[in-house]
Amino acid sequence: MKPTLIILAAGMGSRYGGLKQLDEVGPNGEAIIDYSLYDAIRGGFGKVVFVIRTDFAEDFKARFEPKLKDRIKVDYVYQSLDKIPAGSVLNPEREKPWGTAHATMMAESAVNEPMAVINADDFYGNKAYRVMADFLCSSTDENEYSMVGYNLSNTLSEFGTVSRGVCNTDNEGNLTTIVERTKIKRDEDGVFYYENDDRFKLEESTPVSMNFWGLKPNVFKYLNEGFSEFLSEHGKELKSEYFIPLLINDNIINGTIRTKVLKCDSPWFGVTYREDKPFVQQRIKELIESGEYPQHLWS
What we know:
The protein is an alpha/beta fold.
């Protein structure tokens, strides 16, 4: 059975200033998500599930269904603030949903096979999809998960802070801890993450998660249990989010799963801020010129 790709595309794009999931970066109007889909299909994925909001579902379907017809199976699920466990209490002034782990939970009804999860606005590279698909097809342990790891120095933006899952691994390449740092940037004297009024140095080669995860179907059990606990502590907060790294880290500590860090030399880049867009366009142009992608992606 081929694995499924879950694409998290319900984000508001607040730092970017618009609906960046559909912003055009390729020579014929392609978005980053087009390249992700193209790489997933040739990498061995058999289905894609879009996690989106209902208010732009029509645009998504009109844009992608003609391209994907007869290439890969497609499904849609919808993330919204009110999709939480019965009896949970939230702040009535809260506006945004609960982050990447909450978004992944939305796919429970659509996925029964091993799956990968990615962000819609990150370019992961062809080899990353092949490495992940190979893992998902070959790993038979339901509690063996994975992630594609990238060097921190290759994942920063010149235009502001970024959020990254900062990783530690053991001698066998398994995660021992992963902590989401929401304010990382390069200063004149190195790379630092900021917390409250302090800053803490990070090594350039620190492995980080770019939210490219390989999961097994039992993840939905862990997600539902973890999210209920999260809401009991943070449900009344306005901006707290339930991240996938938080779920993974809790279950590594509990001993319920182990997570292999998959290495590959694919390039990563993304559009956290609108100012990142020219760089992304140039990198895609270079990949087309090198033969990695065709000029006309879907023709």
